[in-house]
């Protein structure tokens, strides 16, 4: 079975070691992903949720997304609450179908539906080079950049030489917090009640309503 590992190229937040089996369950965010609203753009054989798999299916290569018109792909992944992200998990490839890099664009609050033009013009929250390999890649993010994300969009701008890009598995590690919503109570006044408003003296001493 392939070994999962971190990639030393992804910055100070990364460490080179195997991913413990238990770690995938301890802070894996799979159950907090809103899978019904995951969206993939330029995917030939799926809509997006196919690659958001539970931990025990992470090595499955029968189900995947492959780009269609060219080698670019966008996958937008909303959460059911706020997420303090620790790491991105990816299984991609094989070979030249591996994306050259992955850009993470974070959204807070209202979710933007980013298309290719918008996401290519927006500065990524963080991005990583992606090495070729059949294992699960763990990409540690800078936690300060992902304190309370409600949605993360992954942008794969190009393959490593193939006409298409292929993605088998997308996962996240981190901490989830339920979304806090408080009801907004608004009282509308159908007709002004004179007793509720202060009276103001007019220029001749008469009492006038404001």
TrEMBL record:
<protein>
    <recommendedName>
        <fullName>PITH domain-containing protein</fullName>
    </recommendedName>
</protein>
<dbReference type="InterPro" id="IPR008979">
    <property type="entry name" value="Galactose-bd-like_sf"/>
</dbReference>
<dbReference type="InterPro" id="IPR045099">
    <property type="entry name" value="PITH1-like"/>
</dbReference>
<feature type="domain" description="PITH">
    <location>
        <begin position="18"/>
        <end position="192"/>
    </location>
</feature>
<dbReference type="Pfam" id="PF06201">
    <property type="entry name" value="PITH"/>
</dbReference>
<dbReference type="GO" id="GO:0005634">
    <property type="term" value="C:nucleus"/>
</dbReference>
<dbReference type="GO" id="GO:0005737">
    <property type="term" value="C:cytoplasm"/>
</dbReference>
<dbReference type="InterPro" id="IPR010400">
    <property type="entry name" value="PITH_dom"/>
</dbReference>
<dbReference type="InterPro" id="IPR037047">
    <property type="entry name" value="PITH_dom_sf"/>
</dbReference>
<comment type="similarity">
    <text>Belongs to the PITHD1 family.</text>
</comment>
